[in-house]
């Protein structure tokens, strides 16, 4: 364990073996940080909130939280969470393993996230979102939830396994982005999409099957992306993806 | 008064009774913070700027500024200001009471804001904006001001009482969003709008009266929103709203 | 030299004459900061990264980095860099002089930037971007790079001298924004543009010559902007611009 002398760590916090805590970082009471995790400088971990129901913040082992990040109490992140800088992560999130949260992303809490999900920079995840496994969400995408703002009606967005949402798209309340779909950049989309199709425009229209997009070097189809893009995924998983028809 | 031992507070700053100042926060000289206000950790309050004309920053009573926020000198916020994290608030803002500024929002200064205004996360308010009372602005909305960038011509946006601007819309220079209007998500809009109408698209078109939008549970009309949405408003005000025809 | 007592400055860092370093700021090992530069509070300068190849971060003389900013090692910024607050600047950037980077902007590294470039607030510059001289990029613009995300193919965007990209536009992978072009607000654009033309819409279309846009006060043409907008440029340069046909 290595705690910078300027860090302020509650003696109620549970801090695992070999955890590293950076300069000026504050760890509050209601927190468990599992072994081998790095928390960089200027973070606040376990901010208290009346909406958290007093539940702890759990950060799984081998995680890496970059500087200036803020996590509230009352969420669970399994092993190997990685964040960029200045992420804001609220209460009541239940996230799987190997989640990546890019710089400046803002997770509003009260949502579910699967395994191996990637949020690039500056992604906004509204409350009540349900995100599957192996999902990619690119910069400046917003997942909304209020069908007639302002109101107390929250219709979260669902994003299913292997779906990809490109830069600066708005996913409207209650939309379901189906397995393997691609939402093109600068789109707005509502309703239920069909699997493995491309949607683009504002309002978005169905364009064609994702299989029609060729790789830039013409060496084959660009989708499903799991057939050619494997960075950061475990060998076993890649083997399984490659053996699918 | 409760000042964290790591906070750096100028002895020229005026700090009211029962104010709480968090760890590592810096309060500069030219600041008045009224009673019962909370300033969380890692903030900078009263940043000096040659554009502020040497005027103080005034933060009204019962306010709550969340961590990592930056306020310049030369602005006035009446009672019960509430901010999210990492807001950036520049000089020469004159704001009413009960303003809410969401996480990551960026107020460029030189603007007027009424009472009970809500900015959600990541809202950008350009200089020369004039915002009325009870306005709602949702994530990633930008209020622009330069009709032919770059230039020294600043035509601020006007947003009138009860108007709502949905996620990721751009309000073009000099636009007037009239009382009770709804600008749909992912729109860009210019010119003068009619009261209580919906505008959507890029470029935005007039769609219909807001009264035509039904609540999700079909229990009535979703607009004017003040007829059904009352969270955070005082009883007296709600009573008045409900008694209007 | 003026280093705040709470700043943490590596004794391996090279810090020039008359440099000022603010409260709680961290300067890492692999950094050179030239004379007369100001680094404000809560910054991290020279964050180590395996992608930087061990190269230093060089910040030129007379620069001003505002608070809560993060710079990685392995980039070079010539004299008179100015930033807003909470900018995030990654490795392998080669930037000219008098660069301005607005609050919340996120430079992903591995890119080239000319002289006198202005990024307004919340600009996202993807890897492999090539930006010329005297370019203006306005809030919430994203320069992308992946033609079929996610993938390892990076086709950076090129933005040539005097080009202007207005608020909340997405520049698609491999696009070339030619000299003097104006991309209108809330546009998405791909391919190669013609010089001194306006493009707008999503997908963007060629509208007309920029010369057709009049100044708001009808005193002449608004473009090329260098004929009337001179704030922050040296006299010699302005003289040259005014003498061009």
Automatic annotation (TrEMBL), chains A, B, C:
Keywords: Transferase. It comes from Oceanisphaera avium. This is N-acetyltransferase. Transmembrane segments: none annotated. Belongs to the transferase hexapeptide repeat family. GO terms for molecular function: transferase activity. The keyword Transferase applies. The lineage of its organism: Bacteria, Pseudomonadati, Pseudomonadota, Gammaproteobacteria, Aeromonadales.
């Amino acid at each position: 364990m290595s705690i910078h002398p300027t860090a302020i760590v509650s003696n109620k916090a549970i801090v695992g073996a070999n955890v590293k805590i950076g300069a000026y970082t504050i760890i509050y009471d209601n927190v468990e940080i599992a072994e081998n995790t790095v928390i960089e400088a200027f973070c606040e971990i376990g901010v208290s909130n009346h909406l958290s129901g007093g539940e702890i913040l759990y950060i799984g082992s081998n995680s890496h939280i970059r500087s200036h990040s803020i996590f509230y109490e009352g969420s669970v992140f399994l092993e190997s969470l990685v964040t960029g800088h200045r992420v804001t992560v609220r209460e009541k999130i239940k996230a799987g393993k190997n989640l990546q949260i890019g710089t400046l992303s803002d997770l509003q809490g009260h949502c579910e996230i699967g395994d191996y999900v990637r949020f690039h920079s500056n992604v906004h995840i509204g409350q009540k979102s349900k995100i599957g496994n192996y999902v990619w969400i690119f910069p400046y995408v917003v997942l909304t939830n209020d069908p007639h703002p302002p109101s107390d009606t929250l219709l979260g967005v669902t994003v299913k396994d292997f779906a990809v949402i490109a830069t600066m798209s708005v996913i409207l309340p209650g939309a379901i982005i189906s397995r393997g779909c691609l939402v093109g950049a600068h789109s707005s989309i509502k309703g239920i999409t069909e699997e493995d199709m491309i949607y683009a425009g504002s309002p978005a229209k169905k364009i064609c099957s994702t299989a029609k997009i060729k790789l830039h070097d013409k060496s084959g189809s660009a989708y499903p992306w799991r057939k050619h893009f494997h960075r950061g995924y475990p060998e076993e998983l890649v083997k399984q993806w490659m053996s699918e028809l």
